[in-house]
Structure formats: structure tokens, C-alpha cells
Amino acid sequence: MDLNNFILDNSDNWSISGDMLHYKKIIKIPLCYVDLNDVVWIFLDARIKKIVIKLVKKLLKEGKKFYFAYPDSSNPAGIFRYHEKVIHHYLFTWIRDEFNESFNKLNFDYIGNLVEWVKEENKFTELKKIYDEVKKEVDRSWYDWPNKGKVYQYPEHIREEYLTIWRDIQISLIL
Amino acid sequence: MRDRAWRRHIRERFILWRICKYNLRSYWYRLYEDANGYRVDDPVLADYIGAKEAIYYNKGRKRYYKEGDKYSPNKSHNRKYRSWGRPGDRPNTREFQRRILIKIKQEYGLK
User: Fold this and answer.
1) How many structural domains comprise chain B?
2) Are residues B43 and B4 in the same domain?
């Protein structure tokens, strides 16, 4: 699979160095690479949100297999506890609500994509562990003394929907 | 040749200068939060891009006021509380509330 096929426009922002496609936004930010099994790995990076969404749209049209990677894993030295960080990044970006709306518009099953990868790697126990860890982050709150009320870090719809994610994961595991 | 590429190069250089000037490396208490929401101990240039402060680098305006809103924050005479963005950016403005009201009306089928 050629990386030149993933270049979306004619601008001079695109560059390929090594086995990776980069997009320039002040500096060159890694965007994607292709695995030996012809699987495309997109770095799920909020810095280049629009480009990531466009690339996902293109890959969905072409029907290619792709997964999302942790941005720091572009480091050739590698990262410690790779699988755990990828799963954490999947869930953490879901919480932050950066890509949810646009993925829903594309009818892209984000959680299904995660589960598909977890199935391949047999990391279900770690998924459960990280899910519980992120749940603590979602429910983070503090007491606002001047206004006399509890303040949550994340909005209500995220907190409620996060509880239903585990059900979605189990359903997609069965399917 | 002052074409598009030249203008872009100057703009990028200006943004880099701003980053150096405001020196956001002094986030000793809560660490620096990058665009992906991770806390970075010793941020480098790549961590600043797309972060909350990137708005300030690009447009020269600060974050929205969360406190201290007045009745008419969009009035031009009210410089302290005025929004530097588009009218209706902030939740406590007339334009913003009007949009919410329209949504509620649409839910109940009144509009």
C-alpha cells in the first residue's frame, strides 16, 4: 500500500519521511503509517483533528482496515506498555469529545474499532482494567465553595454515556 | 516574492516568537496540558500546538471570561467584559441564549 494515496489535497503540507506520512502544522506532525499486514495506523491526534477526520472518511469509503495509534508511538524508540496506552488513548479521546460528533456523522463505530483490535491482540483483561481507571477520571469533581455546588470536570452527557460503553463493548465482542 | 508561501512563513515565525515570549514552561504546579489532554512535565514546541493557548498565539486574544459577566457584555463601551470573538461565543450573551431558546422551541415543535 502506497502512502501517497493518503494525501488528501495538493498543498505542500504533506511529506513522507521513513515509513510515515506527515502533515505540517507549524511543525511536521506524524499522521499515519502502514503495517506489514496492510493495516493503516492513524495517529489519533487532536492537533490535526480535521485532517484525521478527512482521512478516516476516505478510508471508510475505500473500505480499508485501519486502527488508531497513540501519538507518541511515532517515536522510533518505542513506548513503554504500548497496548495499555493505545487502549487508554482510545477511551480518553472519547471522553474529551473531540472526535465523537464527526465520527457519528460518518457512521463510524469507534468503540467497535477498538474492540476489533483488542480481539486480535487478546487484551480484554487490560481493557476492563483501563475502563475502570478512566471511569474515575470521568467522575472527577470538586466542591465550588463560592457558588456552593459540586462541579464536574466532564459534562453530564459524557458521564452518562460512558456507563453504556461497557455494554457496547460486550455486544461487539459477541458479534 | 511576497506570495502565499512567504506570508505563511512569516506568520509561522511570528507564532513561534509568541511562544518563546510568553514562556509557558513555568507550569510547575499542574503541569502543561497539551492538545490531547495529557499533562507534560517539560513541554517542547510540539506540545504547544493545538493546545488551549494556541488561540492566543494565533489571534492575540485570551480565554473567555467565565466570571464577572455583565448584562450586555457585547457592548463596545464595556471593554473589560467584552468578548473579542464573534458575538454569541460566550454563554451569557443574548445571541447565545437565543440559539438555545430556538433549539428548545424546535424540540417542542413550536418553530
Assistant:
1) 2
2) yes
Q: Which of B28, B53, B63, B34 is nearest to A92 (CA)?
A: B34
Query: pLDDT tens for residues A43-53?
Result: 999 999 999 99
Give residue A72's domain range: 1-76
- Global pTM? 0.77
The helix (H) or strand (E) run that includes residue A168 is helix A156-174
Give the whole-number percent of chain A exceeding pLDDT 70.
100
- A71: closest CA of chain B, how far (Å): 9
Of A76, A111, A133, the last residue of a domain is A76
Q: Do B49 and A25 touch (CB under 8 A)?
A: yes
Please judge whether A46 and B45 are an interchain contact, meaning their C-beta atoms are less than 8 angstroms apart: no
Would you call B36 and A12 a contact, using CB atoms and an 8 Å cutoff?
no
At A7-52, the pLDDT tens digits run: 999 988 999 998 899 999 888 999 999 988 899 999 999 999 999 9
Chain B hits for A47, Cβ within 8 Å: 35-36, 49-50
Indicate whether B79 and B33 sit together in one domain.
Answer: no
Count of structural domains, chain A: 2
Contact state of B15 with A29 under an 8 Å Cβ cutoff: no
Give B46→chain A minimum CA distance, Å: 7
* Whether residue B62 has pLDDT greater than 90: no
Q: Which residue has the higher pLDDT, B48 or B103?
A: B103
What is the complex's ipTM, to 2 decimals?
0.82
Are residues A104 and A154 located together in one domain of the fold?
yes
